[in-house]
């Protein structure tokens, strides 16, 4: 049973790797020429379009190993409960990463557009060239590129794109665009100042994250202390899993300790996140 559990865990680990993201629909729709590389017929995207194993499913093999070692179905129940919680945490972390990438993309878009303007291009053409090298506009990319290409309301399209998390700097770009169109002011100068301001704000956020990295490491270490205690008990010749899963006192300690562990992690995480927001 232990060998079966280990094989199952290895299979899930191999299959739970991140899938390659598809190309952006807007870029495909507005592509001038060239063929689109389709995935091969043997790829998982064609053979298994519905099954998408994610990292949160690794909780089940780990729970299965614990259930076999402790001879109790309780770890399987806890593993099933942990799957949606881990999925929520992973999605939140992915959203934060996307937001950070979008912030950097807005900075790059401002700098690239200003560079194209200095090269002699018109604002609409400069935006088209600059947007082709960044992935910051997201779902509003088609509207922004269409407005720039066909003489539409580019500032309004940029303000719509700025509603995405991390793309708030596009609202400043829309304001620079509106001022340049209405008063004839230099758009490149405004974009340079906007880029400098956004870059300074991004550097400040990165510095704050670096300062809080130690706090997050401490929280992770505290979360792993119960596992280290179980390992030490096992190394000393005891059977902590049997005590936890098959005795009344062990079950009481498991419930109370789990509640205290969860409350402590939530409290510490809330303190650190409050520092990040400030």
Automatic annotation (TrEMBL):
TM spans (from-to): 62-86, 212-237, 243-268
What is the recorded membrane topology of this protein?
Multi-pass membrane protein
Any idea where the Type II secretion system protein GspF domain is? 114-232
Q: Where in the cell is it found?
A: Cell membrane
One short Pfam name that applies is: T2SSF
**Where is it chiefly localized?**
membrane
| Keywords attached to this entry | Cell membrane, Membrane, Transmembrane, Transmembrane helix
UniProt-listed PANTHER family: CONSERVED TRANSMEMBRANE PROTEIN-RELATED, INTEGRAL MEMBRANE PROTEIN-RELATED
Query: What name has this protein been given in UniProt?
Result: Type II secretion system F family protein
Lineage of the source organism?
Bacteria, Bacillati, Actinomycetota, Actinomycetes, Kitasatosporales
């Amino acid at each position: 049973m232990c060998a079966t559990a280990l094989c199952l865990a290895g299979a899930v680990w191999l299959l739970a790797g991140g899938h390659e993201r598809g190309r952006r629909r807007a870029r495909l729709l507005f592509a001038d020429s060239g063929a689109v590389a389709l995935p091969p017929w043997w790829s998982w995207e064609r053979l298994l379009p519905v099954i998408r194993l994610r990292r949160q499913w690794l909780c089940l093999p780990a729970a299965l190993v614990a259930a076999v070692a402790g001879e109790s179905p309780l770890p399987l129940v806890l593993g099933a409960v942990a799957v949606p919680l881990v999925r929520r945490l992973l999605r939140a972390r992915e959203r934060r990463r996307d937001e950070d990438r979008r912030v950097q993309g807005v900075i790059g878009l401002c700098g690239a557009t200003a560079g194209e303007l200095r090269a002699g291009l018109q604002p609409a053409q400069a935006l088209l060239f600059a947007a082709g090298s960044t992935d910051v506009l997201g779902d509003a990319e088609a509207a922004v590129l269409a407005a720039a290409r066909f003489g539409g309301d580019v500032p309004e399209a940029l303000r719509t794109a700025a509603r995405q998390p991390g793309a708030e700097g596009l609202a400043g770009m829309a304001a620079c665009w509106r001022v340049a169109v209405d008063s004839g002011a230099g758009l490149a100068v405004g974009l340079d100042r906007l880029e400098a301001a956004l870059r300074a704000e991004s550097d400040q956020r990165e510095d704050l994250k670096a300062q809080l990295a130690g706090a997050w490491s401490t929280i992770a270490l505290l979360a792993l202390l119960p596992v280290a205690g179980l390992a030490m008990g096992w190394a000393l010749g005891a059977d902590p899993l049997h005590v936890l899963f098959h005795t009344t006192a062990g079950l009481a300690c498991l419930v109370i300790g789990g509640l205290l562990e969860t409350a402590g992690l939530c409290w510490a995480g809330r303190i650190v996140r409050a520092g990040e927001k400030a």
